[in-house]
Structure formats: C-alpha cells, structure tokens
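The passage that follows is intended for readers who have already worked through the single-chain material. We present the inputs for a multi-component assembly, then the predicted structure in tokenized form, and finally a short commentary. You are encouraged to pause after the input and sketch how you expect the pieces to fit together before reading on.
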Amino acid sequence: MKNRLRVLRAERGWSQADLAARLEVSRQSVNAIETGKFDPSLPLAFRLARLFEATIESIFVEDGAPTEQGPAKPEV
Amino acid sequence: MPLCNRHLSPLQRRSIQLFGANLTLTAVLTMGAHEFYKQAHPAVVFVYLLAGMLTIPVIGVIVVAGRYLKRETDEFIRMMVVQSLLWGLGVTFAMDTFLGGLFAFPEIYRLIPILNLDLFCVTCGFALRIQLWRNR
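Having made your guess, compare it with the prediction:
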C-alpha cells in the first residue's frame, strides 16, 4: 500500500522521530510505514488521519486503486 | 535502535529481565537435575517431580512473552517480536529434530543436556537484533 506520509511530514517540517513521538510509536514504525514495509492497523491509521487533519484515503492509497487522474491501468 | 538499553521502555526492560531470569533458572535446573540423577539415583517419583520442575521456566517464558505482546502498544515492534518468537521456535524444533535423529545412534550421540529454552531465547534475541538492524 502506498502512502503520502513522507510528504505530509515534510510539509510540516517534522522528522520521523517527531512524528513517532506524536503518534506514541517507535521511529522504526514510522519508517516502516513510510517505506511501505508495514501497513498500520485501523486505529493507527485513524490517529495519523487526525494528526494530519486528513482522511485515511487521502493518506493511504491501495496498490492499483483508481486515482484522481482516472482508473489505474491494468498491469501488463 | 530501540530495544537497546538506552531506549527500552519499562515494559521491555522488565520483560528482558524476566526472560533472563527464566534463562538462568532453566540452565541451573537442567544442570542440577542432570547431576542429581547421576549421583543420587532418585526414586521414580522424584524423577517425575524433577522433570516437572524443569517445565517451570518454560511456562514462565511463555507467560512473559504473552504478557509483553498483550501490553506492547507499538504494533510494528510487536510484529517484529512475534516474528522473532517464530524464528526461535523454528530453530529449536529443527535442533530437536536433528538431535532426535542422532539419538538412534548412541555411538554418535553423546548425551548433551538439551537446553531448549536457552536455545529458543538466544535465537529470539538474535532474530530480533537482525530485524531491528534491517529496520533501523
């Protein structure tokens, strides 16, 4: 699953450690989510959405899901 | 790196201490029982009692691990700990199977007190270290 966490964090000038402290998780968790190694649970996704004042779907994008530019192209 | 001394949460520190205590207890009990069997030639009832006593640290480690997983709030760390426990189980089972295979050949197999729990804990520790290093 892709996400815009790194962009949202950079917009606020937060480091991974800053975000981790605000979410009360480890910095490794933030790094793993940002790099797509780990998908957070719903409660953590809601916490992220609240923190960034955004919706979950605007932060996380399912692989192959249609975007604002139109439906995803099928993989060849 | 989390789970190194400076960054340990009180729950992690306490759990590691309890793991260490169980590890020491299992080593002492296994060696002690082994010597006791050899020197005292106890009655069958005592042999069963001693064998039962050896399971105390095993149950202790399972309780400590379960308690930790229940209370750890960081889901990513929790996932890494679960994966490490699985590595620990896998290596312990593999080693047991290997030694079990040798058991049929007494000329090869020399009785080694199998410290399953120690092997399990050490493997878990290594696996966790590697995962923390990979996700540093």
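Commentary: Chain A touches chain B at residues 24-29, 31-33, 37-38, 40-41, 44 (CB under 8 Å). The longest strand of chain A covers residues 2-3. How closely did your sketch match?
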